[in-house]
Design a protein that fits this description.
Radius of gyration: 21 Å
Order of helices and strands: HHHH
Distance between the termini: 53 Å
Strand content: under 5%
Shape: flat
Low-confidence stretches: none
Largest sheet: none
Structural class: mainly alpha
Number of helices: 4
Mean pLDDT: 76
Helix content: 40-55%
Number of domains: 1
């Protein structure tokens, strides 16, 4: 309703409604294999927001470990992106590339 009011107020010829899509990511099957979840992390990068539901309704559930595992996977994936970017900047060899690589090194260490 608000979209229609705004369209009339601003004399818009076209109305584009907001789109909300929900994606359900499967739970990690093997908690010991963080690299095996690279597809999951890739899918997560494509969304604008996430709601995380932790399992805490069974006797053997450990929601804090589950949260820690997910955060670790995401941090490791981001670190891989940073390392790849740094390598590309070093190979470029320009002053701007060297400066950006130095900034990454200063912020994230060697």
């Amino acid at each position: 309703m608000r979209e229609l009011t705004n369209c009339r107020r601003f004399s818009s010829r076209k109305t584009t409604y907001a789109e909300i899509r929900f994606a359900d990511f499967p739970a990690s099957q093997n908690d010991d294999d963080l690299k095996g979840n690279s597809n999951l992390v890739t899918q997560m990068r494509e969304v604008d927001a996430m709601a995380l539901v932790l399992r805490d309704f069974e006797l053997d559930a450990d929601p804090l470990r589950q949260l820690n595992d997910l955060l670790t996977e995401m941090i490791l994936a981001d670190l891989t992106v940073v390392e790849n970017r740094r390598t590309r900047l070093k190979k470029r060899g320009t002053a701007a590339g060297r400066s950006a690589a130095r900034t990454l090194r200063d912020n994230f260490g060697e």
